[in-house]
User: Which sequence fits this backbone?
């Protein structure tokens, strides 16, 4: 039996079930539904050949070419899904819910599986992602100069029962010139949005969501315009910690990385640092004097951050000064203030 369902039903009913993305490798790698398993009907080259045949000859000729390619792979497809299927159900999609997913659905239906096709394909999923990112969630932005421990604060807030979005974690980047060090490869902007949508779908829209203060770009990932607009106009809580504490945090975060990677990151901001400070930072690295290097970098980032604060569009900016790196105290203070503002305290 083959049943076509919309995106809401598809995402809901496919939880814990086998979901197949039958698009090509390039399409899948660029962005996919996070829980989807990749089983391409055509690989990159085959898809190109079929598409060229369709344009230069005819639809029917393209179908024949595709059948020649797929025919010998049908048994492989069935053998692939057999150990993965649960409750005899398979959920399938391609780009627009057309011939590729339809062909796979026919095959698995023939083999006796209960098949569910996504109406509108991956394209309909992307529409849902965009709509979700635009929703006016109640965000609270955690700000502060580099080394203030904002990411750790977010995770401690989650441990305290708060909802959080770790944008840097989803982007595999820490948000500065050094942000790629020790990180896995970044997702495409499209797939980052898919991952972000997945996180938002787990959250209660009636409750606040904490998020770190970010630029519009996190490494190579670019934040969605409407999502970015909502973040920019949300209340901002700025952590203020002594420079020495922030230096120690930077050393702990980055000193374990290869010196060559640190040198390259410093070189990337050479013009912004200035030639003299860049040279001093590089010489300090040669001596493994990470604290001096971190201090020089902070001098640049502190000036940049203070300038950015003056450009903020939100009118709700709150500053909290802490003399010690005490996460329990920081998190308690933020939650208490948020509760007060929300009328809970």
Assistant:
């Amino acid at each position: 039996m083959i049943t076509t369902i919309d995106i809401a039903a598809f995402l809901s009913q496919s939880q814990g079930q086998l979901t197949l993305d039958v698009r090509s490798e390039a399409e899948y790698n660029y962005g996919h539904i996070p829980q989807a398993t990749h089983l391409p009907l055509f690989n990159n080259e085959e898809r190109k050949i079929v598409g060229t045949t369709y344009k230069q000859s005819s639809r029917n000729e393209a179908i024949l070419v595709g059948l020649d390619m797929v025919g010998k792979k049908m048994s492989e497809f069935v053998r692939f899904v057999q150990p993965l299927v649960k409750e005899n159900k398979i959920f399938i999609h391609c780009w627009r819910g057309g011939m590729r997913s339809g062909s796979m659905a026919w095959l698995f239906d023939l083999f006796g599986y209960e098949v569910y096709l996504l109406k509108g394909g991956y394209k309909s999923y992307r529409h849902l992602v965009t709509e979700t990112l635009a929703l006016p969630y109640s965000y609270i932005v955690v700000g502060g100069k580099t080394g203030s421990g904002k990411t750790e604060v977010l995770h401690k807030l989650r441990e305290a029962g708060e909802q959080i979005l770790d944008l840097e974690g989803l982007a595999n980047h820490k948000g500065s010139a050094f942000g790629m060090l020790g990180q896995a490869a970044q997702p495409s902007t499209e797939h980052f949005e898919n991952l972000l949508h997945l996180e938002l779908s787990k959250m209660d829209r009636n409750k606040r969501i904490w998020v770190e203060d970010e630029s519009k770009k996190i490494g190579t990932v670019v934040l969605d315009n409407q999502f970015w607009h909502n973040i920019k106009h949300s209340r901002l809580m700025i952590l203020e910690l002594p420079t020495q504490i922030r230096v120690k945090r930077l050393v702990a975060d980055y000193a374990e990385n290869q010196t060559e990677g640190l040198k390259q990151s410093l070189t990337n901001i050479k013009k912004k640092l200035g030639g003299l400070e860049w040279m001093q930072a590089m010489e300090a690295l040669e001596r493994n004097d990470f604290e001096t290097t971190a201090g020089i970098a902070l001098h640049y980032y502190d000036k940049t951050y203070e300038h950015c604060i003056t450009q903020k569009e939100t009118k709700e900016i709150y500053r909290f000064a802490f003399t010690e790196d005490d996460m329990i105290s920081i998190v308690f203070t933020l939650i208490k203030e948020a509760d007060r503002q929300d009328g809970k305290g």
In short: The chain has two domains: 2-130, 136-341. The CA atoms of residues 237 and 318 lie 5 Å apart. The radius of gyration is 25 Å.
